[in-house]
Amino acid sequence: MVRQWVWTPVFVNDYFYLFGFVVFLNLQSIANTIGTKTPIGYLIVQNFIFDCSFAAIGFLVVLALHISQWMAASRVNAFEKRVMSRSDC
């Protein structure tokens, strides 16, 4: 069972770095206002709000993955300690 949880932190870290890469690529498009009659400041603020909401959702996903990995790892460790203490007798 322990081997199944070994890759979970790696997955969470990879997701975090991929998410950061996508957010920073998306931040470059904040000033895209070509061919519109809407005020530039309004478009920049709208794009920034969209990027911030995307970042918040991604952060919550990473946080949920990290908490679930932490809880699962603690349960697996508790189970392993219980099994090892029984085998010592």
Q: Main attributes?
A:
single chain, 89 residues, mainly alpha, 2 helices, 78% helix
Radius of gyration: 22 Å
Please bin the fraction of helical residues: over 70%
What does the largest sheet look like? none
The overall pLDDT, averaged over residues, is: 81
- How many strand units? 0
Helix/strand order: HH
Describe the structure.
This protein is mainly alpha-helical and 89 residues long. It is 78% helix and 0% strand. It has two helices and no strands. It is rod-shaped, with a radius of gyration of 22 Å.
Give a nutshell description of this structure:
This protein is an all-alpha fold. It has helices spanning 8-27, 40-88. The protein is rod-shaped.
SSE blueprint:
Elements: H1 8-27, H2 40-88
Helix pairs in contact: 1-2
